[in-house]
C-alpha cells in the first residue's frame, strides 16, 4: 500500500545531510476528516521555513507531511498524537479514527526509517562517515504575540546532543565555538547546548545505530525568523540562519578534510 505520508529526499555528492522533519504542513485527504485542528493551530507547533534553512549543497531529507499526521521524531507509539498529553494538551484526532488508518501510519513510520537508515548506510559506505544537521524551530512566545522572550531560558539556537557518541564531542565543540563567533543581523549569536531540547527520536536512533561513523546534531532555532502566531516569516532572518548553516557545512568540511579526523 502506498505511504500516506510524504517526504522529499535529494541526494548530493556529499557525506553531509540536512533534515527538516517538522517543516511539512500537508495532511493526506484520507486523514483530514479525522483531524480536529485547524491549519493555523497546527502551524504553531510545526516548523515552517526550516526546509528553506536546510536548502544547502548537501543531501537533504524534508518531511512534507505535518507532524500532526505522523511525527517521525517520536517513537512509533507516540508518533501519532492520539492523546492530548502527546500534543501540548491539544485534541488532534476524532475518537472514531479507524484503527486501520492508525496502523497504516505506523507502517509509514517504519518504512520511512528504513529508507533513512539505508541512505545513511550508503553514505557511510561511500565516505566512511556522515553528519546530519537536524533542523527544527521552537516557540518562545507561548503566552501571546507580545510576550517578552526570556533570553535566559530560550537561546537563539539550542543544539541537542543527548544521544551523541562521545567520539564526536570535539566536533561539537568546534561547531559551537565557530558558530558562536558569528553574528545574525548584526547581533552576537546565543548558541547553547541542551537547554530547551536534547534531541528527539531521529537523533536517538541514528546516533545509536551509526554513532561510530557520524553524528546527528539536533539544531533548534528560536522562532525569531517568523511571527509564531501568524506564521509570517522575516525573510532576511530566514536567509541569515540559512547562511549560518552554510557556515556549519564549511566547518564540517574543514574538520574532516583538513584536520585528518576521518
Automatic annotation (TrEMBL):
Fetch the InterPro entries from UniProt.
N-FG_amidohydro
- List the Pfam families: FGase
> What is this protein's name?
N-formylglutamate amidohydrolase
- Organism of derivation: Sphingobacterium kyonggiense
Q: What is the lineage of its organism?
A: Bacteria, Pseudomonadati, Bacteroidota, Sphingobacteriia, Sphingobacteriales
